[in-house]
Amino acid sequence: MLPLFALFFAAFAFGTTEFVIAGVLPQVAQGLDVSVPTAGYLVSGYAGGIAIGGPLLALATNGISRKTLLLGLAIAFTIGQAACALAPDFSSMLLLRIAVAVAHGAYFGVAMVVAVGLVPEDKRGMAVAVILSGLTVSNVIGVPAGTAIGSLWGWRATFWVMCALGVVATLAMLALLPRTTGASNRPAGFAREVRVLARQQVWTSLILMLMLMIGQFTLFTYITPTLLEVTGLDESLVPWVLLLNGVGATIGVFLGGKLSDWKLMPSLITMLFLQAMMLAVIYAVSPYPVPMIVAIVIWGGLNFAIGTPIQTRILTWTADASNLASSLIPSGFNVGIALAASLGAAMLNAGYGYRSLPVVGAIAMLVAVAVALASHVSEWRRKAAPPLPAAAE
């Protein structure tokens, strides 16, 4: 478990630096002499760096040993945080954030491949859950702590603390990761990396990921105004609801890991259907504070419980050429987040209220159920077996 802890801690650091910018955005805008909307490009720029740069970097570093690559990415993260803390203007800050995001995208793809290679086959889901929990814990602990540090000592102090986290993460991986990290990192070749994406288990899983993000972020992007205007919560209660949502997400990650190691596809199909029902419940109870808070917590747990088996499935069915496919996981999530936020904005601009947003999510989840069922039936009929890792060929 110690190697997995090292990977978790680095995931926590990357997750915190991605999301904490939202908590200190007004201070960053003031410090760099730009408007808050302009400073918002630090968020979208980071997402773009993950989505586009992560897969490209993964392909470019195909021949580097995974431990060396992970250490290099952690060092890039650490240097990037120090540079952000010293950034003299907005343009340099934006370029530095994008550079860190490229490392972020490559890190999560490689870390998940390494994680599943460190454990027996029946523990793959839990290994993926450990890496994913770095993101959920960063939202529960890292982002509030980083925001508080920024409020007390300024936003540059937040990035210096991120730099210190990077140093600890680098040292932890240096000390705890074995020299050979599970599967071989023998270059599979660009053509083969692309070919594995044509397996129906892979592209259908990417569709499921997209539907999951629409089900989550069409509503979550606008969760604060929804809770204020539709549910009628006091503004002081919203952070506590978001904290409970994060706690539910953290529990959900590990629940999804357990279910992935038990019966992956039946569990995934069931959870997708339950999430469709939960979004319908959110629509029904949104005007009522207590039921709405309970529903938001369960919904948050299911979001991350579903994410674990989807990623485990992609890693399982690309074990013989995993670099590109694994890097598409964080890329796909960020593309889905951007599409979901844009879809929500389009609906609101068209005159639909905040209450309509979970309806879109419920429809996306029902589409996901149909895709997952069709994929599972096809796999069962063909009696298809996952490929062996490259090292075992």
Automatic annotation (TrEMBL):
This is MFS transporter. Keywords: Cell membrane, Membrane, Transmembrane, Transmembrane helix. The chain crosses the membrane at residues 41-61, 68-88, 94-119, 126-153, 159-177, 202-225, 237-256, 268-286, 292-310, 331-350, 356-374. It comes from Mesorhizobium helmanticense. It is found in: Cell membrane. One of its GO terms (cellular component) is plasma membrane. The keyword Ribosomal protein does not apply. It is a multi-pass membrane protein. PROSITE patterns: MFS (PS50850). Its main location: membrane. It comes from the Bacteria. The keyword tRNA processing does not apply. InterPro entries: MFS (IPR011701), MFS_dom (IPR020846), MFS_Efflux_Transporters (IPR050189), MFS_trans_sf (IPR036259). Residues 3-379 form the Major facilitator superfamily (MFS) profile domain. GO terms for molecular function: transmembrane transporter activity.
